[in-house]
Design goal:
This protein has 161 residues and is of the alpha+beta class. Helices cover 19% and strands 25% of the residues. The chain has two domains: 120 residues, no CATH class; 29 residues. The protein is globular. It binds zinc ion.
């Protein structure tokens, strides 16, 4: 059973997200092909916003999209950013992270993400190319852990490992 992550970001972003389009579901490589065809060449080099919905399908949205908009405000099994690349005439996932401060998915969300890509027939790396840890401090601030530095970015308190 995969962990479900509810949205934990600012309420004003969640409310604004309800006005924005949801991400496009990727149920096959053809879905990804169609979606990529509608993107500008420059946009295809940038990372995209993705979520894995609780039904286990990947949804993609343009980079500037909030994860909560991509997910239609719902819970997710995973969220982050990914970069596409062309390999042997097909699109594949070249880079993928769990960077989403709206959902703060644990690195273990990889299992659900790998399953979503495999079931759609989209080639992928064996693991996150970059995995982040997220920690909430007693002061209320959220810190994205980088370089193994478990210190609150707002108040410099030590965060649990
Ligand atoms: Zn703090």
């Amino acid at each position: 059973m995969s962990t479900r992550y509810p949205y934990v970001g600012p309420e004003r972003i969640r409310v604004a997200a309800l006005e924005q389009p949801e991400g496009t579901p990727m149920r096959s490589h053809d879905d990804l092909e169609r979606w990529a065809r509608d993107r500008a060449t420059g946009e295809l080099r940038a990372p995209f916003t993705y979520v894995v919905e609780v039904e286990g399908w990947l949804r993609l949205a343009p980079r500037e999209s909030e994860h909560v908009a991509c997910a239609g405000g719902r819970e997710v099994l995973g969220a982050g950013e990914l970069v596409l690349a062309r390999d042997g005439g097909r699109w594949c996932v070249a880079e993928i992270t769990n960077q989403s401060t709206g959902y703060c998915p644990d690195p273990t969300s990889w299992t659900a993400i790998a399953a979503a890509l495999d079931r759609a027939g989209i080639a992928r790396p064996p693991r996150f190319t970059v995995a982040f840890a997220f920690r909430w401090c007693a002061c209320g601030a959220l810190t994205v852990i980088k370089d193994d530095d478990y210190t609150c970015a707002a108040c410099a308190a030590a965060l649990h490992r």
